Amino acid sequence: MTKSGRRPLIAGNWKMNGLRGSVPVVEAIRDGLSPELTSRIDVLICPPSTLISSCVAAVYGSAVSIGGQNLHAKASGAFTGSISAEMLADLGASYVIVGHSERRAYHHETDDGVHAKALGARRAGLCGIICVGETQEEREEGRALDIVRAQLAIGVPKGAKASDTVIAYEPVWAIGTGLTPTPADIAEVHASLREMLGQLIGPEAQKVRILYGGSVKPGNARELMSVENVDGALVGGASLVAADFLGIAAAYA
Ligand SMILES: O=C(CO)COP(=O)(O)O
Prior knowledge:
Layout: E1 9-13, H1 23-32, H2 35-38, E2 42-46, H3 52-59, E3 64-68, H4 85-90, E4 95-98, H5 101-106, H6 111-123, E5 127-132, H7 136-140, H8 144-155, E6 165-169, H9 183-201, E7 210-213, H10 218-225, E8 232-235, H11 242-249
Helix pairs in contact: 1-3, 1-11, 6-8, 8-9, 10-11
The structure holds 1,3-dihydroxyacetonephosphate.
Residues 13, 100, 170, 175-176, 213-216, 234-238 line the site of 1,3-dihydroxyacetonephosphate (13P).
């Protein structure tokens, strides 16, 4: 548990990476986690949808969870190429990333769309990881807090609970760049998100986990995970290498 009493979550977002030959990476993560560590933290891998079934089979009976990277808000219908929350749950997924900045940027996802998808995730019993984050320009203009608070206010469904909602703060300019905000800047954003959550969902806000994502590596994980109101990490590139992902999880060892 973090000092706050929230159970940390270390989540890996594989993005558009991985073929069937990549499943051994998940097996190595599964086998590299000690029972003592997994008694205190949650561990999640979100592979491409094509690998969810085989990854669910690979972690069956272990402490590792599998999630999706995106979903359609509807349960079914004429939405060619889309995948619903129910389909992800049917495959054994238990989490789903909602509103990742790469989808906001390249697929024109809106805050209202994120809200609808978060409702879809809850409808199917999935825990939605709602992503917020500012661009370099927005940070340089001093608008980072305004941007992420607005994304949260619109994206988080009414009545959201710690059991169905996780927040991930991922500054766009830190994703894939090797750059991270200072611990003080991360603390400021996470505190502001926690306060905004309190306005939205009341006392439950103290239980909802807020992850940090954006160039989390084994070398910076301990410092970043020690920041107040940081309840874990959403890891991209480093989650593709079992040793690196385990090195990040070890921040909580
Ligand atoms: O986008 C991210 C996780 O969703 C972060 O990616 P990196 O860890 O590669 O910066």
